């Protein structure tokens, strides 16, 4: 077999393992915020109609701007809770929530607590009190298994390609 054919076979085998197009995916975990609401005043239970999470760079939140909604970045509320996911949060925040009693209440300025932040929000007569609830962050075993599996596959493919190349080189030297 000529060297040209060997190189051609090697190129064909290598091209099988290479993607035809480059692929870009954003699969990494995103910072999140979960808000659980509790009513301080007695009376009819209030439900959330809508809400806005304001992002701030300044400690007094003078530069407040709503969290921009994109494909994987959003802020949404249900009747008694809200959730935010972002590519990254600013250091300071403020909540503004409209309730079933017709009032819109604004929270105190609060800081990002953790990568996966959990907050208790107390609904008061005229405003909201946001307090961080610290919880230990647990790394996802499944994420590490996927990463290790992918790395193992890449190493396996690399070993097969190297062994195939060595085999082809040895055969060509023996025939010469």
Summarize the entry for a quick read.
The protein contains 2 helices and 10 strands.
- Give the uncertain stretches in residue-range form: none
What is the count of distinct domains? 2
Number of helices: 2
* Gyration radius from CA atoms, angstroms: 28 Å
Explained architecture:
This protein has 176 residues and is an alpha+beta fold. The chain folds into 2 domains: 3-25 and 141-175; 32-132, Immunoglobulin-like. The chain contains 2 helices and 10 strands. The chain has helices at residues 3-17, 141-175; strands spanning 32-39, 48-56, 65-66, 74-77, 81-85, 92-99, 104-107, 110-111, 116-123, 127-132. Strands 1, 2, 3, 4, 5, 6, 7, 8, 9 and 10 form a 10-stranded mixed sheet that branches. A hairpin with a 4-residue loop joins strand 6 and strand 7. Helix 1 (3-17) runs antiparallel to helix 2. It is rod-shaped.
Provide the fold topology.
Elements: H1 3-17, E1 32-39, E2 48-56, E3 65-66, E4 74-77, E5 81-85, E6 92-99, E7 104-107, E8 110-111, E9 116-123, E10 127-132, H2 141-175
Parallel strand pairs: 1-9, 7-10
Antiparallel strand pairs: 1-5, 2-3, 2-6, 4-5, 6-7, 6-8, 9-10
Helix pairs in contact: 1-2
